[in-house]
Amino acid sequence: MSSAAAAPESDDSSSSSESEEEEVKKEIWKGHYSSAHKILLVGEGDFSFSLCLARAFGSARNIVATTVDTHQELVKKYSNAIDNLRELQDRGSVVLCGVDATTMAHHFFLTTQRFHRIVYNFPHVGFYFPEPNGCQIKLNKQLVKGFMRNAKTLLKRENGEIHVTHKIGEIYDRWDLVKKADKIGLVVYETTPFFRSMYPGYTQKRAHGVRSDASFNLGESTTFKFRVRECP
Questions:
Q1: Which of 1, 42, 83, 165 has an alpha carbon within 20 to 30 A of 143's alpha carbon?
Q2: 12 domain-assigned
Q3: Is residue 6, in this structure, part of any structural domain at all?
Q4: Is residue 126 situated within a structural domain?
Q5: What is the CATH number of the domain that holds 167?
Q6: What is the C-alpha separation between 37 and 29, in angstroms, rounded?
């Protein structure tokens, strides 16, 4: 009397684990940004842009979000900043306060990191003079130049990108973003119109003065994407 070998039972826990692993590895895109990118966000205001990406990705483990403000300044300036900050941290983000965009390459944590995308939305030093004033424009140009120089140091060389989203028009074109980038070895490879509707929940903040928590008119805005110039 022959006996048939019993078929091995399927390991449901193993297949379940594999499917969960595949889900974790699935790449999710939001606008220009992917859950597979290691992303540094600079000058984040109330952290609403960072949080928009984190919610879209389902996690913020790939995100480092920074602001020049201290924790105490965030409380005073923005109604939602602390709640947004806490949610980012709960989702796994590193959140750093008191980070100056023009010296961040020397920050004790950031100096150990390299990023696929470094993003600065609407950089601005604050209103020391009227917006069209030559001194005001010079200060903003210095901010952008300092940021780009530091971002270049923190960028992954292979397919790394620095993104600056910026209002365009007569006044803002005088900031000379592309020219400033060229002088420090960065080249613009793409410009694309910025639409806030792509990033639900993001609110651009004035960040300065008594109306720091108010939004400002974006008008016509563009995201400039820079890469490190390849050596000939």
A1: 83
A2: no
A3: no
A4: yes
A5: 3.40.50.150
A6: 10
Question: In 3D, which of 46, 51, 121, 44 has the Cα closest to residue 82?
Answer: 46
The CA–CA distances, whole Å, from 140 to 64, 127, 133, 202, 217 equal 24, 10, 11, 23, 18
Domain count, the chain: 1
137: three-class secondary structure by DSSP: helix
| Domain hosting residue 196, numbered range | 37-228
- pLDDT 10s digits, 25-38: 689 999 999 999 99
CA–CA distance, 213 with 207 (Å, rounded to integer): 6
Question: H-type helices in 43-133, by residue range?
Answer: 48-57, 71-77, 81-90
Entry pTM:
0.87
Nearest residue to 121 via CA among 31, 230, 186: 31
Contacts of 172 (CB under 8 A, 6+ apart): 166
Is pLDDT above 50 for 1?
no
CB-CB contact of 42 with 118 (8 Å): yes
